[in-house]
Design a protein that fits this description.
alpha+beta, Aminopeptidase, OB fold (Dihydrolipoamide Acetyltransferase, E2P), four-stranded antiparallel β-sheet, about 25% strand, globular
Length: about 280
């Protein structure tokens, strides 16, 4: 649904081309491009249409804006499923990431604990390094879990900053689709489970105040202590340091700006407060 987040588009298409229908028990429903205008414009959102972010519009409305109507049409497809995977991905400004987003469980969150656990298990089986607990009202997972009582998760998977990284992430995404289908007994054989623990964490985002030249030596998945210096922003004209960006909590870096130039008030980084490693 975001036109610059293309890992899911390619992974779904290639999985569809290579899958053998005779070996699939049940149905694989893949939608490689949900927001055609954004995809064709190579832009995150088609702002010339209705200025809405479709990610926040589910379950949609058949009498609403064009984005709300697409969301409603998609929900009619998603309701036929036993599990929903919502692909997103980092674009050219953030380091590549392999993470899943799942809403908080009750009593503090919005979804039943059993469905939270099932979604966590399938996300780990898919093959992510991190699971971010995050309520996103109007998102596909939050709506479909509560409405249909089936597991679902969003992916922040891959990135396009490095072509070699993109190919590696793409292969892992295709394998991840197969892993989930094997776990659900749609394909024969055991899933190829990762040999690492997945970190479950709560996100603490950091919006920088200033724009300028961004410098950091950190990487996604680095562990940091509270108030640790993560990066600096310098004035491009005077070389003066305008801002020191620090970790708001102790935890693991989940998002990190990677372009050498940063705009004011964007997501410079996020740190996940670690809940558990599973």
């Amino acid at each position: 649904m975001h036109g610059t987040e293309i890992i899911g588009t390619i992974a779904i298409s290639r999985f569809f081309k290579t899958a053998d229908p005779k070996k699939i028990k049940g149905s694989f429903i893949g939608i490689p491009v949900l927001n055609t205008w954004a995809f064709e414009a190579e832009h995150r959102l088609p702002t010339s249409l209705d200025h809405f972010d479709m990610e926040k519009l589910f379950p949609g409305s058949e009498s609403g804006s064009i984005s709300e109507r697409i969301a409603e049409a998609f929900m009619n497809i998603a309701r036929r499923s036993d599990c929903v995977i919502d692909f997103h991905g980092q674009d050219q400004y953030w380091q590549p990431t392999r993470a899943a987003i799942i809403p908080f469980p009750k009593p503090n969150g919005s979804i039943e604990f059993e469905l939270y656990e099932r979604s966590v298990d399938l996300a780990k089986t898919f093959g992510v390094r991190q699971i971010w607990r995050l309520d996103k009202p109007g998102s596909i997972p939050e709506v479909i879990i509560n409405e249909k009582h089936i597991p679902a998760f969003s992916l922040e998977f891959g990135g396009v900053t490095d072509f070699r990284q993109k190919i590696k992430q793409l292969d892992l995404a295709i394998e991840g689709i197969g892993n989930v289908m094997k776990s659900m007994k749609m394909l024969d054989g055991p899933p190829n489970l990762p040999n690492y623990k997945t970190t479950i964490c709560d996100l603490c985002p950091v919006l920088n105040k200033f724009g300028g030249i961004w410098q950091t030596s950190m990487e996604v998945e680095d562990v940091v202590e509270k108030d640790a210096l993560v990066g600096t922003i310098d004035d491009p004209y005077t070389a003066e340091t305008l801002e020191e960006v620090r970790a708001p909590v102790s935890g693991v870096i989940t998002n990190l700006w990677c372009s050498p130039v940063i705009k004011p008030a964007v997501l410079a980084l996020a740190v996940g407060r670690i809940i558990e490693d599973r």
